[in-house]
Amino acid sequence: MYYQHNIDPVFLSIGSFIHIHWYGIMYIFAFFIGWSIARYFVAKPYANFTKNDVEDLITYIILGVILGGRIGYILFYDFPYYREHPLEIFKIWQGGMSFHGGFIGVLLAALYWAYKNKKDFIELTDFIAPCVPIGLFFGRIGNFINGELWGKESTLPWAVIFPSGGNVPRHPSQLYEAGLEGLVLFCVLFFAAKKNPPKGFVSALFCIGYALARSFVEFYRIPDAQYGYFFGFITMGQILCLPMLLLGIVLLYLSKKWQNNPHYDTVRLQDGSNIRVKRYHKK
Q1: C-alpha to C-alpha distance for 277 and 263, rounded to whole angstroms
Q2: Residues 190 and 226 sit within 8 Å (Cβ to Cβ)
Q3: What is the rounded CA–CA span in Å between residue 213 and residue 176?
Q4: What is the mean pLDDT of residues 21-50?
Q5: Are 223 and 236 in contact (CB under 8 A)?
Q6: Are 140 and 184 in contact (CB under 8 A)?
Q7: DSSP letter for each residue of 15-50
Q8: Which of 147, 148, 169, 167 is nearest to 158 (CA)?
Q9: 232 φ, ψ to 5°?
Q10: How many helices (H) and strands (E) does the chain have?
Q11: CA 20 to 30 Å from 6, out of 38, 70, 167, 246?
Q12: Rounded Cα distance, 3 and 11, in Å
């Protein structure tokens, strides 16, 4: 009655030593499509960034995602294990990436890039935000292929029996997250960004939307074994989402203030040069 998960996490093996994992391929898809979305937005007349900016920025984002995601997972979820097995730190193809760590890594990378290129940091996060959910979508598909991060027991017709989860059907919580944090959040941010909203609005939507989506799915997902539940019902994932939710609310408030006050925008001229123009938003 239920789908028996039997997907091989290895996409291709070359000899006995070279193995190409689906998890790594998902990251390649994520970066490529995220790059394509960024290229789409720089073609808009209100864009504050150029194609050259995107080409330069993508390297920083990739480093922020990989280093931040891995370090975050080690620190937030399983530090005692990696302290005892340090060589396991480098086996990222087996999974073990933290979104919240990757989020911090991307913020730090974006902050450095904005400082280096004299760009507004919040405008930059608004620009990056619509690209992120696609990465989340492919990352969660990678989790599903690996048969990890499965959910609680379920009798629903779409429940899945995972080899590592015992011979019982479970919520495919990875697919729930792929849908909510990935596709739904992407649609919300993409159409919001197309309307050229005030500074900070898209970043606020991302923080609030992700925090709510992740917190909801956590009710169907098995908590991390090393932590279990805090106070009997709260998971580590939900705790880490709380700062994001608060940050989103603050950005939403600031966005409203920026909308009602004059500020300077960068306008690109036909000859490719940029000028700063003072604009007033209607109240």
Answers
A1: 8
A2: no
A3: 9
A4: 91
A5: yes
A6: no
A7: TTTEEEEHHHHHHHHHHHHHHHHHHHHHTSTT-S--
A8: 169
A9: 85, -10
A10: 10, 7
A11: 70
A12: 21
- Find the Cα–Cα–Cα–Cα dihedral 225, 71, 14, 27, rounded to 10°: 90
Residue 134 has pLDDT above 90, yes or no: yes
Amino acid at 81: Y
The predicted structure's pLDDT at residue 45: 82
Identify the pLDDT of residue 276: 57
User: How many Cβ atoms from other residues are within 10 Å of residue 159's Cβ?
Assistant: 19
One-letter amino acid identity for 146?
N
Query: Do residues 239 and 230 touch, judged by C-beta distance below 8 A?
Result: yes
Q: What percent of the chain has pLDDT over 90?
A: 62
Structure tokens at 168: 């019982």
Beta-carbon neighbour count of residue 200 at 10 Å?
Answer: 23
**pLDDT of res. 29:** 95
The model scores a pTM over 0.85 = no
**In which region does residue 161 sit, left (phi positive, over 0), alpha (psi from -120 to 50) or beta (all else)?**
beta
Contacts of residue 50, defined as CB under 8 A and 6 or more positions apart, other chains included, come to 42, 268
Measure the CA–CA gap between 111 and 128, rounded to whole angstroms.
12
The total number of residues written for the chain in this structure: 283
The tokens describing 173, both together, are: 């919580």
DSSP structure string for 200-262: THHHHHHHHHHHHHHHHHTTTBPPPTTT--BTTTB-HHHHHHHHHHHHHHHHHHHHHHHHTS-
What is the spatial distance between Cα 226 and Cα 274, in angstroms, rounded to a whole number? 52
Q: Cα–Cα distance between 217 and 213 in angstroms, integer? A: 6
Burial tier of 179 (Cβ tally within 10 Å: 0-12, 13-18, 19+): middle
Write out pLDDT tens, residues 207-231: 999 999 999 999 999 987 777 888 8
Query: Strands across the sheet with 3-4, in order?
Result: 3-4, 160-161, 169-170
